[in-house]
Design goal:
This protein has helices at 15-20, 33-37, 52-63, 76-84, 105-123, 132-158, 181-187, 210-215, 217-226, 237-249, 264-276, 289-306, and strands spanning 5-8, 24-27, 68-72, 93-96, 165-171, 190-197, 254-259, 281-285. By secondary structure, it is α/β, with parallel strands linked by helices. The structure holds iron/sulfur cluster.
Length: 308
Amino acid sequence: MTAVRVAYSCSYVPPEWISAYGLRPERLTVDCSAEAAAKDCAGLARLQGLCPYARAFAASVIAQQADAVIFTTLCDQMRRICELLPAEWAAKTFLLNVPRTWQSAGAFRFYKEELVRLGGFLETFGGRAPSSDDLAALMSAADNDRQECRTLAAESFSQADRSLKRLALTGGPITTDDSWLPGVVRQHSGLVVLDATETGDLGQPGPFDHRRLADDPFDELANAYFSIPHPARRPNDPFYAWLGENLAARQIQGIIIRRFTWCDTWAIEKNRMRERFSMPVVEVEACGGSGARARTHSRVQALMEAIH
Ligand code: SF4
């Protein structure tokens, strides 16, 4: 039997929770051209003036005919897109409420309740609530995979060509449209050694605490994902603490922020990053077409010239 495919984009959706219900989580890598391809779709025609990533995510969900889709309230644009999806998607769509503020026990309890509510939604697609042991086993496997990726990334950083300038890439999610960006950076004698985008290291939970995982896997799952330091949370000091630590560990010399038009979350952070970190910061436009590519070339070049 083919597993039910549950599409999502936001880092606060734990894929282990979907797998534990016996369904298949698919964090979609969005194709910005899917937006153009879906222009004829009645629902998407109403989605102008919104973040191109959010629009392309909705278009990809429809184009790929996911069985179910999870949106979150982390960003108003995604919430809006969720409301504007064609009516036939209503029964297949779940909106996970993610609190913007995170410091109180009440906010964490609310997030856990939302995950339980998500479980109820997954049950309507044939999912079954997992036992603690099954959930713990899935979490351990996922944790090991992530640890392996971190080890590989650390190895590749240690072997990186030291004559190249070391950069961090941060901002909104990476799309299939971004495959040319590392080449541009390389062309200007740079190398991205930290992927601090929403779909990169920034959007990953930290390692699970194995004692807590054994005692109460659901609580540990919720805790690890709730602690992801996304800049949209308020206050967002944990984002700057996380970024500062990683910039230092990878000896970063400059920062590229990828921002989608209409994305306020990352627009605000550009100036704050400039104030906080003593290194050059440039913003490049994501999913902006060929004009944006030309602008990206000149901004990356300017960044390299500003690095001493
Ligand atoms: S890029 Fe910005 S506006 Fe677009 S979905 Fe992400 S947070 Fe929301």
